[in-house]
Amino acid sequence: MHRNGVVNKISERLQNRPASQVLHGRKPTQTEDGQDKDSCAHVNHFLVLNSGRFHSFKVKVCPIYTRRAEGGSATVRFPFGQWDKTAGVRTELLKIVGGEGRLQKRLLFCLITLTLLILIIPTLLVSLQTETSTEPVSAEIRSQAETADEESSLVVRVYLTKEKRVEEIPLESYIRGVIAAEMPADFHPEALKAQALAARTYIIDRLIKQDYSDMSRWGEAAKSADVTDTTMHQVYATDQDLRKKWGAEYGKNIRRMDEAVRSTGGQIITYQGKPIYPAFFSTSNGRTENSEDYFAGKYPYLRSVNSAWDQYSPKYRQVQTWEISRLLGKLEAETGKRIAMSTSSGQNMIRILKKTPGNRIAEIQIGDRKFTGREVREALQLPSTDFSWQIKGNKIRLTTRGYGHGVGMSQWGANLMAKQGKNVSEIIAHYYQGVKIEKMSPDRLANIAGRLRIY
Length: 455
What we know:
This protein is of the alpha+beta class and 455 residues long. The protein is built from 13 helices and 18 strands. The protein has helices at 3-16, 87-97, 101-131, 135-152, 171-182, 189-209, 239-246, 250-263, 324-335, 373-380, 411-419, 424-431, 442-450, and strands at 29-31, 40-50, 53-64, 73-77, 155-160, 165-170, 227-228, 267-271, 274-275, 280-281, 317-323, 350-355, 361-366, 369-372, 387-392, 395-401, 409-410, 436-439. A four-stranded antiparallel sheet has the order 1-2-3-4. Strands 6-5-7 form a three-stranded mixed sheet. Strands 9-8-18 form a three-stranded antiparallel sheet. A hairpin with a 2-residue loop joins strand 8 and strand 9 (274-275). Helix 4 (135-152) packs parallel to helix 8 (250-263) and helix 6 packs across helix 12 (424-431). The chain is globular and about 100 Å long.
């Protein structure tokens, strides 16, 4: 049908509709639409009464040029936001413009498509919004992690203590689980990277040395694992644990962990070409400790360094109040040392004998017994070996500064350094003296993988 014929037919049908169905119609006007002049007809603002409601349409009729012998054909276009999905209105509109060959078919196809879009799109949007923080995010992260894991081909066997089973986890996925468990998710990205380096260095060193004698304390099932998911090695959280922990924040937080893993992929901290023992803890008392002042071994890169900014950590200062009799009983039970107290000792019942370069208690006398600061801390489960006290009556008030053993990298210190503009390399160089950050070569990775236990 010629385009003028289409225009005239729509105009006639609008004018001939009963008043109960078409209350107002404006004759088509002709304008440009990127084709020839007068190529489109617009039927504006006609209202159809349906079930007591008025529905507004803006109908645009345009010819589609073809080379077919019968001439051009025409289509009707409806702006998406101005079309009503009510079935009665669709029927009425078809009555007004329908009836002729391709025009009717094209119009019907357009109406059905729009109906489906109107009904389906809101459902899809809700579904996508709900799933944004779950499967699509984790799929993206798994893809990136798998790429990194393929490069290393290393698998870590982790004994999950709550589930009492061993799970094999690709190296880089394991690192992500350690960062997420060991460090707050909202820490600065440079601090998260430092934690990733420490975590990867620890497990690589353990896999190289292959000393798993400490696994037997967890039972027979744990003997086939490389590490546990506890502070005995490195705390590790499964993806399921993290979803429960973070809830709606899972997507955002796991992306931060993944970025820390990806940006440090394959890198470890070395001293004279070998992986270091990358000790770390939560918060210092203002300085870190020399390794030999808390651990048995002396490491040249684990030296006492300034970390004064840790005073801004929420874990910097803690207070506990004990009954003296309970405190003494706890010390005796945990250390096996019987303590005799003088009735007239008062405040002098406890005396500091020696302090470390990190300003923590190295040796202390309680009653007639001597203890190391570590013995007291572990027996009483104190946050730190830097503690002071006040005795009042039968009670003792202990105030601790810092949180953790104090050796190596302070996690809160790393975060505060990063906020001051320090990058991951500067953080690592500060807390681990004289070390390097090196990327492991494929040959070295293959060598490590070849030395792993096979069952």
